[in-house]
Write the structure tokens for this entry.
Amino acid sequence: MHSFFLRGIPFHLDITVSCGQAFRWKKHNGFWYAPFRTCVWKIRQEGDILWYEGPEENELVRYFGLDVPLDNILKDIDRDPLIHKAIEQCRGLRILRQDPWECLISYICATCANIPGITMRIENLSRKFGSPLELDGMVFHTFPNAGSLSKEEICSVHACKVGYRDTYICGAAKMAADNPCWAEEIRALPYPSAKKKLMELNGVGPKVADCVLLFAFQKYEAAPIDVWMERIFRTNYFKEEQKLSYVKASEFAREHFGQYAGYAQEYLFGMREDISKKGG
């Protein structure tokens, strides 16, 4: 078991891995577990110490974004009483640096679905097309790579209970297999162009594109809008009864919170139930 001393770096592991960014983290006996490529990561936080096994230290730092100046970001987005409260409540929440391929398929699976449904689809795909990994008596599965998944028949993917998303998953797999540099190309583009490029894929609409750009490419101006965020913006910032369009809500997020709108969105999402209970 290795240790990493945060030395004043603001980080809250539990909130970060459980706030709906990624779907493969599971908590067992005080540790969080998730499969990564060829091994399982195991990690827990005790104050300013992270105890972990699986990743190298540089991988740990990169994935959890521990090299990102979070205090500066939070200071930048702290522009109204509601986000101020969210920052106080969720301080240490960091946006993960996820694998672009896994993130893309995960959020295609996330269309019109809740977190349990998303998790189920991702685990079904991994069990069927990935490889088993064991740690502490538990079995995990690697995420299927694009090359192998692109060779599968749609019916095999459909059997993973992904529903109508089967054709979208197969299409994305073929794209990634045919163009191994796709992620580098997306990363090099500015946010608007990167979003437009991702949306050329069938099954990738504005929300999926924004999620992938935020969680896999660190395009922090991307602000994904789900039913929770639409409600938060509509009732707290617009004071309107009429539902906001995706474009209006996401553009407002960028105008109001600036270049780190995605971080603001994630902090507000982190306290969504508290906001809802108090009616905004």
In short: The beta strands are 2-5, 26-28, 31-36, 39-46, 49-53, 132-135, 138-141. Residues 68-90+219-280 form a domain with the Endonuclease Iii, domain 2 fold (CATH 1.10.1670). The two ends are 43 Å apart (CA to CA). The chain has three domains: 2-67, 68-90+219-280, 100-215.
